[in-house]
């Protein structure tokens, strides 16, 4: 069994063949898929998908690139959505200084408010971090999630080993995606190989970040197997053992029900 812990299954790139994509994933052993929301509008779409497909679970949250209009009153709506039985996390939330679509203080406000919401609801968070290492680490350290049993995951981890160490120390997990398989990714592979086995997650971030084997194509949950294989080799395990390990980690972090 494999679990794709981050897939934007609601995006329109999947409109033509969403049923087939989910069926193909299942045929490749990817029996569970977590779909994170990015704004208030698509929260509902994500929840509908979780209702439609048994193996699909939802995360509810406002992405930093959608936080320009953030108001604390949105928390009420998020709290209501989070009450849905298939919501397993708050996400994706975080900071993005690459696109900088919202002013930094607004990004900080939205991120902090949602970290607090996750703590209040006893849910882990799914964190997006692009070129904002120092502030992400600082806001996590200041948040009530630091040191909790299942604080969350640094999604599509791509920072330095020092950053990995700091978030691991707070109890966070590291999510690895297609870039782990890219030819130039030796540094990322070194980090993934050093990270503790019980904190590793695999994800696709589909439709983005297709692995080397499918480079240039639309990514999809079935391809999470390529990430797991690469991660297995880095830890000297066979693919099945790594699939089992990362699935157990995802089940524990997101408290997914047994099949
Ligand atoms: Zn994403």
Structural class: alpha/beta
Helix content: 40-55%
SS element count, helices:
9
> In percent terms, what proportion of residues is strand?
15-25%
How many DSSP E strands? 8
Give the assembly state of these chains.
single chain
Radius of gyration over all CA atoms, rounded: 17 Å
| Domain tally | 1
Q: Quote the average pLDDT.
A: 97
Short summary:
With 259 residues, the chain is of the alpha/beta class. Helix content is 41%, strand content 16%.
Description:
By secondary structure, the protein is α/β, with parallel strands linked by helices. The protein has helices at 18-27, 40-52, 74-82, 104-121, 133-142, 161-169, 186-194, 224-234, 239-254, and strands spanning 2-4, 30-36, 56-60, 87-96, 125-130, 152-154, 173-176, 200-202. It has a single domain (2-37, 51-254), classed as Metal-dependent hydrolases (TIM Barrel, Alpha-Beta Barrel). The mean pLDDT is 97. The protein contains nine helices and eight strands. Helix 2 runs parallel beside helix 3. Strands 1-2-3-4-5-6-7-8 form an eight-stranded parallel β-sheet. Bound molecules: zinc ion. The site of zinc ion (ZN) has 5 residues, from loops.
């Amino acid at each position: 069994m494999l679990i794709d812990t981050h897939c934007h299954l609601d995006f329109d790139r999947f409109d033509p063949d969403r049923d087939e994509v989910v069926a193909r994933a299942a045929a490749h052993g990817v029996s569970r898929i977590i779909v994170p929301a990015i704004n208030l509008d698509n929260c509902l779409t994500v929840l509908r998908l979780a209702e439609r497909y048994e193996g699909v679970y939802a995360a509810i949250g406002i992405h930093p690139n959608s936080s320009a209009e953030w108001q604390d009153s949105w928390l009420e709506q998020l709290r209501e959505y989070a009450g849905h039985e298939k919501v397993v996390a708050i996400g994706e939330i975080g900071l993005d200084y690459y696109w900088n679509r919202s002013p930094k203080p607004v990004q900080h406000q939205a991120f902090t408010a949602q970290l607090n919401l996750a703590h209040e609801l006893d849910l882990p968070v799914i964190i997006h971090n692009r070129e904002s290492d120092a502030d992400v680490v600082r806001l996590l350290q200041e948040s009530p999630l630091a040191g909790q049993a299942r604080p969350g995951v640094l999604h599509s981890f791509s920072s330095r080993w020092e950053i990995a160490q700091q978030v691991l120390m707070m109890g966070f997990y590291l999510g690895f995606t297609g870039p782990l398989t890219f030819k130039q990714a030796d540094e990322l592979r070194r980090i993934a190989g050093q990270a503790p086995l019980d904190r590793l997650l695999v994800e696709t971030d589909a439709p983005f970040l297709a692995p080397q084997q499918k480079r240039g194509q639309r990514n999809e949950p079935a391809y999470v197997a390529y990430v797991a294989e690469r991660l297995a080799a880095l830890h000297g395990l066979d693919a099945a053992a790594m699939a089992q390990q990362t699935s157990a980690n995802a089940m524990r972090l997101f408290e997914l029900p047994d099949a």
